[in-house]
Amino acid sequence: MSELDRNEPERTEFETAVMSLARSQGIDAREVQSLYDSILADLKREAIIMDFLPIFAARKVKERLLQKRR
């Protein structure tokens, strides 16, 4: 999903999630953004209810980043 595909509330939520994850993991926000976009797109393809997708995407990004460090 590109930046252009997001409405204002989604964009704000996305930016907050990416910056928070980048800070907490000590990595570049662009790397987190790319991973978050990919995971969110995958989740959206399979989801019926979209309300909690940003939370699930953030959780999956954090899990992947932690796995990558190991």
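[next item in queue]
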Amino acid sequence: MAKEIPQPQCASCPYDWSERYCRQSGGKGPKNCPSLHHRDLAAKTLEILKDPQVFEFARQASIQEGEGYAGGEKGYGALHPVKPRIQEVVEFCHKMKYKNLSLVFCVGVRFEAKVVQQILETNGLNVVSVMCKAGRIGKEEIGLIDEQKVVPGGFESMCNPILQALIANYHQVDFNVLLGLCVGHDSLFLKYAEAFSTVLAVKDRLLGHNPMAAIYNYDHYYRTLKNPIE
């Protein structure tokens, strides 16, 4: 019987990030370190990267990562970010020589989507933009009762990320940019989209689409998250 590999818990690694095995040769790793136990899968990634399209995507993504900082030549303490994510999206598309993009967005960020489309088009990119309510299919089709609608008492279009993906596929876009899709809706889009995708921003209705705000305030205003969510 093959030895069972322990479940990774990288988020709880007891070692400082600078000492970890995944960061340097001879580094430290706990008993459940995936870098130590999954050498076979790490080798498999190199096989996957032999696909020229995947190789170039990974290469350019890492180049983009490095270009997002300045000051590295002076050491880690001098390192600082220099670009917002929207700029990195544009630059990455140029690196990959992408011309046609989909902008897949939620109706709740329709004003922001208009600005994003303008930025992308200003930089020479053709944009197929598709809102979540496209298709005008009622929520009854997915089993919702009236009380489960956002505003009960009338017709309400379902969010249709599968259709958004199919439209993006139909227009043979090179790259998908997600903006403000709901939890779960983003998952469906990513499952059915054929091209690679990136997320410009996620949905957080309460925190202005900045879900990290609750994490940053875990010990303060959002300390209730230390308790089970009912």
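[queue empty]
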